[in-house]
Amino acid sequence: MALKRAISALILIAVIIAAVYIDWNSLAPFTVCGLIVVIFTALGLYELFTMLEHKGINSYKYVGIGMGMVIPLSIVFRFEPTKKWELALIAIGLLFLILMQFRRRNNSGVVIDISTTLFGILYVSWFFSFLIKIIYLPGGMGLLATILLITKLGDIGAYLIGVRFGKTPLMPRISPKKTIEGSIGGLFFSVLGGLIGNHFLSYSYAHIITLSLVFGVIGQLGDLSESLIKRDCEMKDSGKALPGMGGILDEIDSLLFTAPIFYFYVSSVLK
């Protein structure tokens, strides 16, 4: 199990290195990062809707996946007929789902089915698509590398320290195996990731350390939030796509929180 986790972690680190050194502009309009985000979005939505099916909730699975893929694709191609195109798309999606319901003979559970489909699109697709938006900011390549390093090294550190030294449960009701020691270790690794990423940003040490701690905590909240969903659906992992590490959703859960908040921080607070 440890070997499988190490291999999967190395693959993720390779993706981070690619994000730093590939000349994204030369690959426009469809960047490698955009392709990765679209694929991960589709797989993450599939895993989420499958977990909901395990709970007995019949969402509009494939319609939701299709709608979810449109959001990152529209950002990659810079297709923005309105300033808030993603929200407009979600509103159109709601109307479409309601129209689809008219064809059903059974109206039982319609509110839950539509709500969970829209939740999946917002939670997985919209939040994760902010990784693409980060790339299009000034210095976006370095920004992307930094938030990936802060978030994913935090995940890896929390696991390694938790397995080796973890004794005190963090939130056993939500995730029995997560420990306070692992959480602290994760924050340490997040700071380490921020310091490595600061090579591309040149923030002050106080700034990057504070930023790393804040987004390290946000990343752990994202991890716990997905654990809460899995607990509700009575599933250990969201899937089996990554050996030893679970599903795609298990790997992107922390980024679902850090990516949009980091984007708004950089584009609004630091502009």
> What is the C-alpha radius of gyration, as a whole number of Å?
19 Å
Number of domains: 1
The gross shape turns out to be: globular
Average of pLDDT: 83
Strand content: under 5%
- Into which percent range does the helicity of residues fall? over 70%
Spans of at least 5 consecutive residues with low confidence = none
Distance between the termini: 44 Å
- What oligomeric state do these chains adopt? single chain
Q: Return the structural class.
A: mainly alpha
The SSE string, one letter per element, is HHHHHHHEEHHHH
Q: Total number of β-strand segments?
A: 2
- Counted by DSSP, the helix tally is 11
Strand order in the largest sheet:
1-2
Q: How many strands, what sense, and barrel or not for the largest sheet? A: 2 strands, antiparallel
Report on the architecture of this protein.
With 271 residues, the chain is mainly alpha-helical. It has one domain. Helix content is 73%, strand content 3%. It has helices at residues 2-21, 32-55, 61-76, 85-101, 110-128, 130-135, 140-165, 180-201, 205-233, 248-252, 255-269; strands at residues 169-171, 175-179. A two-stranded antiparallel ribbon has the order 1-2. It is globular, with a radius of gyration of 19 Å. The mean pLDDT is 83.
